[in-house]
Amino acid sequence: MKLCLVCNNKLGWSKKRTSDKKFVCSKCLKKYGMKSQVGKMTSGEITEKTKFIDEATCNVGDYLYVNENTKEWMADKIYKFEDIVSFELVENKASHIGCCEALYIKITVNDMKNPVIFIKFITRMTYTNDKVYKKALVDANKCASILEIISK
Fold first, then answer.
1. How far apart are CA 17 and CA 38, in angstroms?
2. What is the pLDDT of residues 124-152, one digit of tens each?
3. How far apart are CA 46 and CA 62, in angstroms?
4. What does the alpha-carbon distance between residue 68 and residue 55 come to, in Å, rounded to a whole number?
5. What is the pLDDT of residues 49-108, one digit of tens each?
6. What is the CA radius of gyration of the chain?
7. pTM attached to this predicted model
8. CB within 10 Å: which end of the chain, N or C, has fewer?
9. What is the domain partition of the chain in residue ranges?
10. Do 15 and 23 form a contact (C-beta atoms < 8 A)?
11. Rounded Cα–Cα distance for residues 142 and 152 (Å)
Protein backbone atom coordinates (compact mmCIF):
# COMPACT_ATOMS: atom_id res chain seq x y z
CA MET A 1 0.00 0.00 0.00
CA LYS A 2 1.40 3.36 -1.05
CA LEU A 3 1.03 6.38 1.22
CA CYS A 4 1.17 10.10 0.57
CA LEU A 5 4.57 11.60 1.40
CA VAL A 6 2.94 14.62 3.07
CA CYS A 7 -0.12 13.39 4.98
CA ASN A 8 0.63 9.64 5.15
CA ASN A 9 -2.88 8.80 3.96
CA LYS A 10 -3.55 5.99 1.52
CA LEU A 11 -3.15 7.15 -2.08
CA GLY A 12 -6.16 7.27 -4.37
CA TRP A 13 -6.11 7.22 -8.15
CA SER A 14 -5.18 10.91 -8.42
CA LYS A 15 -1.57 11.41 -7.35
CA LYS A 16 1.76 12.73 -8.60
CA ARG A 17 5.20 11.18 -8.35
CA THR A 18 8.23 13.10 -7.06
CA SER A 19 11.58 13.01 -8.81
CA ASP A 20 12.74 10.38 -6.28
CA LYS A 21 9.66 8.18 -6.89
CA LYS A 22 7.56 9.04 -3.83
CA PHE A 23 3.92 10.06 -4.20
CA VAL A 24 1.80 13.03 -3.13
CA CYS A 25 -2.00 12.69 -3.00
CA SER A 26 -4.38 15.04 -4.81
CA LYS A 27 -5.57 16.67 -1.55
CA CYS A 28 -2.01 17.66 -0.61
CA LEU A 29 -1.27 18.79 -4.18
CA LYS A 30 -4.22 21.17 -3.97
CA LYS A 31 -3.62 22.26 -0.36
CA TYR A 32 0.02 23.16 -0.98
CA GLY A 33 -0.37 24.42 -4.58
CA MET A 34 2.19 22.02 -6.07
CA LYS A 35 0.32 20.41 -8.96
CA SER A 36 2.80 21.22 -11.72
CA GLN A 37 5.99 21.19 -9.65
CA VAL A 38 5.98 17.81 -7.91
CA GLY A 39 7.65 15.80 -10.68
CA LYS A 40 10.68 18.11 -10.54
CA MET A 41 10.97 18.09 -6.74
CA THR A 42 12.53 15.56 -4.37
CA SER A 43 10.66 14.27 -1.34
CA GLY A 44 12.97 16.38 0.86
CA GLU A 45 12.12 19.55 -1.05
CA ILE A 46 8.42 18.80 -0.79
CA THR A 47 8.65 18.14 2.94
CA GLU A 48 10.55 21.42 3.43
CA LYS A 49 8.02 23.37 1.35
CA THR A 50 4.93 21.93 3.04
CA LYS A 51 6.43 22.52 6.50
CA PHE A 52 7.18 26.14 5.58
CA ILE A 53 3.63 26.67 4.29
CA ASP A 54 2.15 25.19 7.47
CA GLU A 55 4.29 27.50 9.63
CA ALA A 56 3.84 30.66 7.51
CA THR A 57 2.50 33.68 9.39
CA CYS A 58 1.37 35.42 6.19
CA ASN A 59 0.65 34.45 2.61
CA VAL A 60 -0.80 35.78 -0.62
CA GLY A 61 -2.54 32.84 -2.29
CA ASP A 62 0.03 30.34 -3.49
CA TYR A 63 2.32 33.15 -4.68
CA LEU A 64 4.18 34.21 -1.55
CA TYR A 65 4.56 32.80 1.96
CA VAL A 66 6.23 34.61 4.87
CA ASN A 67 7.34 33.41 8.29
CA GLU A 68 7.87 36.51 10.42
CA ASN A 69 9.25 34.43 13.30
CA THR A 70 12.14 32.95 11.32
CA LYS A 71 12.49 36.03 9.04
CA GLU A 72 12.10 33.87 5.92
CA TRP A 73 9.93 33.99 2.80
CA MET A 74 9.15 31.59 -0.01
CA ALA A 75 8.03 31.94 -3.59
CA ASP A 76 9.84 29.17 -5.47
CA LYS A 77 12.15 28.27 -2.59
CA ILE A 78 12.93 29.54 0.91
CA TYR A 79 14.99 32.71 1.38
CA LYS A 80 15.94 34.95 4.30
CA PHE A 81 14.45 38.45 4.40
CA GLU A 82 17.92 39.93 3.85
CA ASP A 83 18.36 37.95 0.61
CA ILE A 84 16.14 40.44 -1.23
CA VAL A 85 18.31 42.83 -3.24
CA SER A 86 15.48 44.52 -5.16
CA PHE A 87 12.10 43.88 -6.72
CA GLU A 88 9.73 45.46 -9.18
CA LEU A 89 6.14 44.95 -10.23
CA VAL A 90 5.98 44.64 -14.03
CA GLU A 91 2.85 44.94 -16.13
CA ASN A 92 3.09 44.47 -19.90
CA LYS A 93 0.14 46.15 -21.53
CA ALA A 94 -0.94 44.74 -24.85
CA SER A 95 -1.31 46.74 -28.04
CA HIS A 96 -5.07 46.33 -27.57
CA ILE A 97 -6.48 48.97 -25.29
CA GLY A 98 -7.68 47.43 -22.05
CA CYS A 99 -5.52 44.29 -22.23
CA CYS A 100 -2.61 42.98 -20.21
CA GLU A 101 -0.18 40.41 -21.63
CA ALA A 102 1.82 39.79 -18.45
CA LEU A 103 1.81 40.77 -14.80
CA TYR A 104 4.65 39.63 -12.57
CA ILE A 105 7.05 40.61 -9.83
CA LYS A 106 10.75 40.37 -10.64
CA ILE A 107 12.79 39.78 -7.46
CA THR A 108 16.57 39.98 -7.45
CA VAL A 109 18.03 37.87 -4.64
CA ASN A 110 21.49 37.38 -3.21
CA ASP A 111 22.07 34.03 -4.96
CA MET A 112 24.69 33.93 -7.72
CA LYS A 113 23.34 30.65 -9.17
CA ASN A 114 19.73 31.87 -9.38
CA PRO A 115 19.72 35.66 -8.92
CA VAL A 116 16.22 36.33 -10.28
CA ILE A 117 12.80 35.05 -9.23
CA PHE A 118 9.59 35.79 -11.08
CA ILE A 119 6.23 35.59 -9.34
CA LYS A 120 3.82 35.35 -12.26
CA PHE A 121 0.22 36.51 -11.90
CA ILE A 122 -0.84 36.82 -15.56
CA THR A 123 0.90 34.97 -18.37
CA ARG A 124 -1.52 35.40 -21.29
CA MET A 125 -3.67 38.13 -22.80
CA THR A 126 -6.26 39.21 -20.24
CA TYR A 127 -8.74 42.08 -20.39
CA THR A 128 -8.19 44.63 -17.64
CA ASN A 129 -11.92 44.72 -16.86
CA ASP A 130 -11.92 40.93 -16.27
CA LYS A 131 -12.24 39.70 -12.67
CA VAL A 132 -9.15 37.47 -13.22
CA TYR A 133 -7.07 40.56 -13.96
CA LYS A 134 -8.50 42.51 -11.05
CA LYS A 135 -7.76 39.66 -8.59
CA ALA A 136 -4.25 39.23 -10.02
CA LEU A 137 -3.58 42.95 -9.66
CA VAL A 138 -4.72 42.94 -6.02
CA ASP A 139 -2.52 39.90 -5.28
CA ALA A 140 0.47 41.41 -7.11
CA ASN A 141 0.20 44.68 -5.20
CA LYS A 142 -0.18 42.84 -1.90
CA CYS A 143 2.95 40.77 -2.66
CA ALA A 144 4.86 43.91 -3.60
CA SER A 145 3.81 45.58 -0.35
CA ILE A 146 4.87 42.57 1.72
CA LEU A 147 8.22 42.45 -0.10
CA GLU A 148 8.67 46.16 0.65
CA ILE A 149 8.04 45.54 4.36
CA ILE A 150 10.30 42.51 4.72
CA SER A 151 13.15 43.98 2.69
CA LYS A 152 13.59 46.95 5.07
1. 7
2. 999 999 999 999 999 999 999 999 999 98
3. 15
4. 10
5. 999 999 999 999 999 999 999 999 999 899 999 999 999 999 998 877 899 999 999 999
6. 17
7. 0.88
8. N
9. 1-55, 57-152
10. yes
11. 16
